[in-house]
Amino acid sequence: MRIARFTTGDDPRFGIVTGDLDEHGEPDPDSAVVALAGDPLYLGVEPLDEQVRLADVRLLAPVLPRSKVVGIGRNYAAHAAEMGNDVPSEPLMFLKPNTSVVGPGDPIFYPRQTSELHYEGELAVVIGRICRDVPAERAGDVIFGYTVGNDVTARDLQRGDVQFTRAKGFDSFCPLGPWIETELSTADLRVQTFRNGDLVQDGSTADLIFDVPALVAHVSSVMTLLPGDVILTGTPEGVGPMEVGDEVDVVISGIGALTNRVARRD
Predict the structure, then answer these.
(1) Which of 33, 94, 178, 180 could serve as 15's disulfide partner, Cβ 3.0–4.6 Å?
(2) Are 232 and 72 in contact (CB under 8 A)?
(3) Is 203:193 a contact under the CB 8 Å cutoff?
(4) What is the Cα–Cα distance from 95 to 151, expressed in whole angstroms?
């Protein structure tokens, strides 16, 4: 089931997206959105007798994290190597503020403080209920679903600051979308990033050092997770720069495509 957050010009609503996806993660032209009674994270999935063509809505970030986005660094061996780092012995966590979240089609703003803005396409996990100390074998009980993320990073600031807060925390540095897929195996999902149509990242979640259940267990052993919190699972090798005007597409098999364009920050 694909759960989207959308608007037709009025207040944001939630809905179920119907139709199939093509090989590029794009929806069928006849796809529709069946409206839900409210936020499914709190009210459950309650469809209404109301639907609208997907082509007639604007998709928004499918979730606005209630408290936090938890990033995981160096979770693909090849990416750790390309950055000149060792593979961590346990998940390397950092936080992105919920104000960094934007949706599909929203601009990624290039801050004046950096000259090295990078894309990082990755699988994002959406938490469905309050939880702490979740065993890995019970992780599925607390996961609402999965979406596509771009862990935008100011690479020069990351090197200079050592810790990641500023480099990954600017407004617009966490595009999410286009919707949440609630029924999905994450054992072997293809994760691709395209910059202006050129393939720049091509990996698989089969290569995660710490898989999704292990990440949920580790993060929840440190902090309480709330409904709508997001865990970014790490990025494959191939990270690189974005420039103003670039269009970046992150495509994950079984979920869909997230597209954003880089814009100058005034």
Answers:
(1) 33
(2) yes
(3) no
(4) 11
- For 232, other C-beta atoms within 10 Å of its C-beta total 25
Ordered by where they begin, the domains of the chain are 2-59 (no CATH), 69-264 (3.90.850.10)
CA separation for the pair 14, 40 (Å, rounded): 8
Q: Which distant-in-sequence residues (6+ apart) come within 8 Å of 163 by Cβ?
A: 94
Question: What does the buried/exposed string (b/e) look like for 39-75 if buried means 16 or more CB atoms within 10 Å of the residue's CB?
Answer: bbbeeeeeeeeeeeebeebebbbbbbbeebbbbbbbb
pLDDT tens by residue, 192-232: 999 999 999 999 999 999 999 999 999 999 999 999 999 99
Contact (CB, 8 A) for 257 and 178: yes
Q: What is the dihedral of CA 4, 74, 204, 117, to 10 degrees?
A: 60
**How much is the pTM?**
0.97
